[in-house]
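User: I'm putting together a small comparison set for a docking exercise, and I want a reference complex before I start. The sequence is below, and the ligand is hypoxanthine. Could you produce the 3D structure with the ligand included, as C-alpha cells?
Assistant: Of course. I'll restate your input first, then give the C-alpha cells for the complex.
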Amino acid sequence: MVPINSFNKLIEIGSYEECRATADWLLEHTQVRPTVGIVCGSGLSALGDMLKDPQVFKYCDIPNFPHSTVRGHAGQLVFGTLKGKPCVCMQGRFHLYEGYPIQKITLPMRVFKLMGVKTMIMTNAAGGLNQDYKVGDVMIIKDHINLPGFAGVNPLCGPNDDRFGVRFPCMSDAYDRELQQLAHNVAAELGFSNFLRDGVYCVLGGPSFETIAECRMLHRLGGDAVGMSTVHEVIAARHAGMRCFAMSLISNRSVMDYDSREKANHEEVLETGQQRAKQMEVLVSTMVARLDGDENEDKNSS
Ligand code: HPA
C-alpha cells in the first residue's frame, strides 16, 4: 500500500501551488493586470464582449482550469478593459452538478486573487421564490443560504492555506454593502430601479430544478431566489479578501402551488437572459467605471 504521506507532493485541487501555476501562466500570456473579475451567468455572457482589446483564452487551453459543459456558457476567459479598468471576465462558470469537486469550481477565484483582482462581480440566472418578483427582475444579492454547505459541501473544506485566508472566514459581510449602494445609485441614474430588488439567494446542487415542496421550504427559510451557482465562488473570493457584488436575473418564477401548470426549464432561463442582458451590461459597466482607488479595496479584510 502507498503510504498517505507520499501523496503530499501531489498538487491538490485549488491548492496555492495549483492556483499559482495557473496565475503565472496567465500572467505570462496576457499583458492585462486585472483588478476587477466578472463572472457571467447563464445567458449573460455578452458582458464579456464589452471588454476592449480582448484577449481570449478557452478554458480547455488554460492549465488546471475545468471545462464548461453547460449550454449558454461560452467557456472562455476574456481579459481586456471595461471603461478603462483592467478586467478579467469568465464567460461561463462551473457548477456542482457538472460533477466537479467544489474546489475546482472555485479555483478561478483564487487564480484571480493571485493575479491582483480586488473586486468580483458575479451574475446568475435564478428562480424567483419571492412572490413579488417578476420574470426579468434583477435581484442584488444581499445574503445567501448555502444549502450544500449545511451538508459539508463548502470550497474551504480541507486543510486551510493561510496564504489565501483564515480558517474560519466571516460571511456576515459576504456581499459588499458599498457596492450594493453603488448598484442602486447607478440603477436610479439609468432608470432601472423599477426592476431592481434586494434579496437572499439560496444555492442548491442541481441539476434537477426544485420540487414544489422544496420551493415552499426555501421561501419559508428566507430565500428570495434559488439557483445553482455563485455562492461557492463568493465564499472562496471572500476567504481570499476580495470584495463581492452579485446579482440574479429572475428568469422564471419558482412553482409554489400544486395547481400551477408552470414548469422551470433551461430554455426559459436563456431567453430571459437575452432580453435583460443589455441593461445588466450597462449597469455592471457603469459600476466598474466608478470603482476606483478606495472603492476597489476591501476595507473590512484583515
Ligand atoms: N432553480 C434553480 N436554478 C435556476 C432556476 C430555478 O428555478 N432558474 C434559473 N436557475
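Residues 125-127, 209-210, 226-228, 251-252, 254, 264, 269 surround hypoxanthine (CB under 6 Å). The longest strand covers residues 243-253.
User: Thanks, that's exactly what I needed.
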